[in-house]
From TrEMBL:
PROSITE patterns linked to this entry: PROKAR_LIPOPROTEIN
UniProt protein name: Small secreted protein
Organism: Herbihabitans rhizosphaerae
Region annotation Disordered: where it falls in the sequence: 150-187
Entry keyword Signal: yes
Signal sequence coordinates: 1-19
Source organism, top-level taxon: Bacteria
Ranges of Basic and acidic residues composition bias in the record: 160-178
Length: 203
């Protein structure tokens, strides 16, 4: 059930992209004349990652508590996830654009890369929601159909982005900003809870 619900959400690729970027330094921002305030910028990025993780966490908890959920329950879980992640990354993108581009070159690369991911993902998420809504839980092929909904519209060169932003996790200014940004503290708590639900040691 857990596997099916995650597949049904059609967001695994997007969430992993966000988490990967977060591991590279939990950063974001957008083009503006004035360099971004590191705390505001990092908080905007963390908000998008936290929303994605929180959405998947709720689905995983549902799956764990109800491993044999009926197709209708699976459909509603997928819709809930989409309805959680889409507004979270939309707000993150808007906040990043308002904050401005970071002065740190690697952070600026991450900012640009995340905006590109969001630009591709938002319309893809809306399309995925329409596809999930159209599914009939009574259809014998329901499981196959919901798992076939692809997250390709949100695909991005995550590995390339990580390479360009390598070392951000050691940037003292950004590390300090993460400690000060409430959104990043919330994201860390969600990530820890996510790991605990999955049984990851050290979470």
């Amino acid at each position: 059930m857990t596997r099916r619900l995650v597949a049904a959400s059609v967001l695994a690729g997007l969430t992993l992209s966000l988490a990967a970027c977060g591991d590279s330094g939990d950063n974001g921002g957008q083009a503006a004349a004035k360099p971004a305030d590191p705390v505001i910028w990092v908080g905007a990025v963390c908000g998008g990652i936290d929303g994605s993780l929180r959405g998947m966490l709720d689905v995983l908890k549902t799956a764990k508590d109800n491993p044999d959920a009926a197709p209708e329950t699976q459909k509603q879980a997928a819709l809930k996830l989409l309805d959680t992640v889409e507004p979270a990354i939309k707000k993150s993108k808007e906040d990043m654009e308002k904050s401005g581009t970071p002065s740190n070159p690697a952070a600026a690369e991450l900012h640009k890369g995340l905006i590109e991911i969001y630009d591709k993902s938002l319309p893809a998420l809306a399309d995925q929601r329409r596809q999930v809504m159209a599914l009939d839980p009574k259809d014998p092929q329901f499981t196959q159909k919901i798992e076939s909904i692809d997250a390709g519209g949100g695909a991005a060169d995550t590995q390339g982005l990580r390479e360009k932003t390598k070392g951000l996790e050691n940037d003292p200014e950004l590390k300090s900003a993460q400690e000060k940004a409430p959104g990043c503290q919330k994201m860390k708590a969600t990530a820890k809870e996510f790991g605990q639900v999955l049984g990851i040691p050290g979470s």
